[in-house]
Design brief:
Helix content is 49%, strand content 13%. The protein is an alpha/beta fold. α3 packs across α4, α5 runs antiparallel to α6 and α8 crosses α9.
Amino acid sequence: MQNESVIEADRQPGILARMLGSMLTTAREIVGLSYDEAAARLGCEADWLIRVETGFVVAAPDEVARILVEYGVREADAADQMIDLARRAASPPPWLAPHTPRMSAGGRDVLLIEAESTLAQVHGFLLMPPLVQTEGYFRAIGSAVLHGCDVDQEWDLLSHRQAHLPAGVTRLLEVMIDETALDLRAERPEVMAGQVRHLLALADSPHATVRVIPKGATFWEKRGYNFDILSFAGTTDRIGVIYYPIIGAELASTDIYDIWARIESMCAADAAESRAILERHLAALT
């Protein structure tokens, strides 16, 4: 019998296909066409159009362009965005394909969205955010956090996520880590030392900022977990991802940017003090 998560992933269309379908539905409704009327214009079956709009069929970029021409909206501001979305929905990152058979549909959607994001604002509490974990740190915590999963397989996935270039550019990272995440004592101190060195190197990078939330900073329940906020080139849209200890990552049902902004303004040390905290921890480890 197939794993339930495999069945779920096979049954549900990917989030990019659903986003494209929703945009095409809006375009059709704006011009006042029923499914049958739209299908007659396009010379296709209405069932095919329904499946495209619900994400169960991914229309090719040239098919999307023709749909928009027939609807008379090819010159609309969002037209090129829809055509580009069709390209990306049809060709997810090749490194993701070997891993999707063991994922739930929700877990797959998180990674499809993350792969599109050109800015990731990542928050860590107790544990380092996945996008900044070193291999040594990941392997040190993997057996406890991943609950029997193949650590080699999971590291292959995470390392590709970290190295991925969305839209062909280096992803920008804004990192906020609670000092509690620096207190984890691995069996070998050099593992955490390597993780702290990695954070210091990121802080020196033109593509990243790293801020630490010191011990004693104001605490409230909503900052007591790991989450990411993902943003995308050419749009003001942003999508939240929440990391749960047992069930893994899920897309947030509400906008969690206000939580990020509150932590940033009320709790996080500035860049200089954050570096000092990291260097103190590194000294204690070495």
